[in-house]
């Protein structure tokens, strides 16, 4: 990938687990038992010179699907919400957009605690992303499916997420960093609602919640389809523009 000459003005951190990393269009081959991405990129997710991505090697390149290809490396990545989000912002005249993918599939919130590798990598990537200019505008967070299996995890979710918000704001020295979190649409039925309630109950300034419930899931009943990811990206952009863009 060629490094790009333009520099992002508005930087967005994409983090969480597999639905943020993107599994849209990832299909299991029935004969070979492995997964591959179908390479179907809807128009809403097409690349544009004004949409950049921060690579695993900490370089800005022109963004294209799958955004998390070099980040969530143990799984096959497909379409997530990031490109649809960025294109929606660009349609509203938000200059050069920089995306900093950090999501890793199958991760529970406790793995995003301060001191843990995932958290520290996210903070490091975020700090590196602004070294050549630009400003971190928002953290987009979609995670929680891995916390729906036990009552203990579901009960602890709200406290853990509130702590994460506090930590990331402290460590990036952005005390009012906007955060748009997604209320999950899938997971273990046992405690799915409990985690969703926790997500929607969080009441911290500059934190808003977008609900993924009702978006179509793939046959695995866990991951959003490509079209659902397009829609989610648009919902995230609407939430960001409505609550945070004017400031």
UniProtKB/TrEMBL annotation:
Transmembrane segments: none annotated. GO terms for biological process: carboxylic acid metabolic process. This is Sialate O-acetylesterase domain-containing protein. Residues 9-242 form the Sialate O-acetylesterase domain. GO terms for molecular function: carboxylic ester hydrolase activity. PANTHER family: 9-O-ACETYL-N-ACETYLNEURAMINIC ACID DEACETYLASE-RELATED, ESTERASE, PUTATIVE (DUF303)-RELATED. Keywords: Hydrolase. Pfam families: SASA (PF03629). InterPro entries: Carb_Esterase_6, SASA, SGNH_hydro_sf. It comes from Manihot esculenta (Cassava). The keyword Disulfide bond does not apply. SUPFAM superfamilies: SGNH hydrolase. The keyword rRNA processing does not apply.
């Amino acid at each position: 990938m060629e490094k790009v000459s333009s520099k992002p003005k508005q930087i967005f951190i994409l983090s969480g687990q597999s639905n943020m990393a993107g599994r849209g269009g990832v299909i299991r081959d029935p004969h070979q038992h492995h997964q591959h991405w179908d390479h179907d990129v809807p128009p809403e997710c097409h690349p544009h010179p004004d949409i950049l991505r921060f690579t695993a090697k900490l370089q800005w390149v022109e963004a294209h699907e799958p955004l998390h290809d070099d980040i969530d490396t143990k799984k096959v990545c497909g379409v997530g919400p990031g490109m649809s989000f960025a294109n929606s912002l660009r349609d509203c005249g938000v200059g050069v957009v920089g995306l900093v993918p950090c999501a890793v599939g199958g991760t529970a919130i406790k793995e995003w605690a301060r001191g843990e590798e995932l958290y520290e990598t996210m903070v490091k990537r975020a700090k590196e992303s602004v070294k050549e200019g630009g400003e971190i505008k928002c953290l987009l967070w979609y995670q929680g499916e891995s916390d729906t299996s036990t009552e203990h995890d579901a009960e602890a979710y709200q406290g853990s997420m509130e702590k994460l918000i506090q930590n990331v704001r402290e460590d990036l020295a952005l005390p009012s960093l906007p955060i748009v979190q997604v209320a999950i649409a899938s997971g273990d039925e046992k405690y799915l609602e409990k985690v969703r309630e926790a997500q929607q109950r969080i009441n911290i300034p500059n934190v808003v919640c977008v609900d993924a419930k009702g978006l179509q899931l793939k046959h695995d009943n866990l991951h959003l389809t490509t079209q659902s990811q397009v829609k989610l990206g648009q919902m995230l952009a609407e939430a960001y523009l409505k609550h945070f863009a004017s400031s």
